[in-house]
Amino acid sequence: MTRLLRDTLHEWADESVVPHDLADRALRRRAWKPAGAAALVVGLVAAIAVFVTGQNEPPDPVRPAIELPVRPAPAPTDVRTDTENSPPTKLIAAGRMAVSAFYTHSLEPLPENRELFRRTWSLYDPRTGGYERTSWAWVDVAPGLQVAAVLEGDLIGRRLGILDMNTRQILSWIELEHPAASVAWSPDGTKILATTYSSRPDVVQRDRAEQPSPRTGYYIVDARTGEAEHHELAPLPDGITGEPISNGNSRQDLGWSLDGTMLWAPTNTRPDRVFYSLDGRRRDAPADQRYVGYSPLSAVSPNGRLLLGPDGLPTEITDVQTGQIAGRQRVLQLHAWADDDNVIALGCAGKCDDEFTNGLVLVSVDGKRMTQLAANRNTRTGDWRAVLTPR
Fold it and tell me: How far apart, in Å, are the Cα atoms of 41 and each of 34, 37, 44, 47?
C-alpha cells in the first residue's frame, strides 16, 4: 500500500463517524440484494487495485492550512522578574526578549561506559504567566510567544507538533520519516527546522573526548501547511584526524541565519559555525551578520550601532563602525539585546568570587545599571538553561 493511500485512509478514519450498526446494515442489504452488493464489492476491490498500482492515480490531496495565532503588535517591552525561584516559576522578560522556555538536565548511566544527557523542558504558559513542565523531547517557541514546535518521543521522535501556547492544543501534527532530535523556528515564524539523527545524539561515551555524531540531515517544515522536505547533511568530522573545521560533539543541531535565508551548523573550531543554503550546499558566511557565540541571536544592537563582545569578567560592548569600546559590564556573559541600551546577561553573585554562582541580569551598555532578572543559582548543583525568544 502506498504511503499516500495509507495517509488518506488515516485521514478518513480521523474525520469519519462510523455508525455502530454498520456491519449489520451491510449484512441486511446483502440478504435482499445479493447481486448489487456483489457488484459493489467487486467494483470497490477493482478501484483499490487500480489506485494501489498507480493507474489513474488522483492528484495528491491538499493538506488544509492551519491558522497560526497572531503575534502581538506592538510587542510588550516591560521587565518581568523572578528572583525568588530557581528554576523560575514566573515569566522572565526584558524589552524585546523573554525566557520562552528552559530545561534542566540529568545524567543517566548506561551500559558499556556510556551515559545519557537528558533534558526536561518547561514551557511558558500565558494562561498563568509562569512555566509548565512538559514531557516533550524538545521544544522551541516562535517569535511572539504564541506557538511552539514540540517533538514527541524519548529524546528523539518522528512526530512534530505545533502547539498553541494559549490553549495548549496541538494545531497540527507532522509525521517525520526520519527521526528528529531538535526543532528551531525561522526568524519570521513561518518555518520550522528539524535536525534529524539516526539515534539519540545525547548518548555519549564517557572515556572518549570526541564523539561521532549520528546526524543524518534536516527537515524544513512549512508551519501553515505542514509540508516537510528532508535534506541529507552529514555531520562535521570529529576532529581526531585534525581537520581545520570539525565538531567533536554527537549533537550537531542546525540553526537559521538571522535573515532566514541560510542555515548554519556549529563547530568546535573558529569560526564557530559554517553556513549552508536551504538545500544543504556550503556557503560563505554572510558578511553583515554577527552572532552571539554558539547562539542563534544577533550580537548587533537593534539600531545596528553596537556589538556584544565575548565571555569575560568584565565583558565589553564595542562600536560597530570604529571598534572602540562603548562600555564594560561586570558580568560573565552577554546573551541578547533587550533594546538599544540594555542587554540580558549572565551576572554573578556578590563580588563574583565564584563564577558558578550566577543568574540572569539586565545590564546597561555602560555597566552602571543592573537589574536582577532571575535568582542566583549554583550551576554545579542546580542548573537550568534559558531559551530566549523575541516577544
Answer: 11, 6, 5, 10
Residue 227: name the closest of 62, 3, 68 by CA. Answer: 62
- Record the cell numbers describing residue 336, joined without a space: 541578547
Q: How distant, in Å, are the alpha carbons of 70, 74, 171, 172, 222 from that of 67? A: 9, 20, 8, 10, 12
Reading the block at residue 65, the C-alpha cell is 492550512
Give span(s): CATH 2.130.10.10, the chain.
Answer: 136-289
Element (H, E) at 245: none
CA 273, 230, 171, 154 torsion: positive or negative?
negative
CA dist., res. 248 & res. 241, Å (int): 11
- pLDDT tens per residue, range 229-259: 999 999 999 878 778 899 999 999 999 999 9
Is CATH 3.30.460.40 correct for 136-289?
A: no
Picking from 253, 248, 212, the residue whose alpha carbon sits closest to that of residue 233 is: 253
In this structure, which amino acid lies at residue 356?
F
Q: What is the pLDDT of residue 63?
A: 61
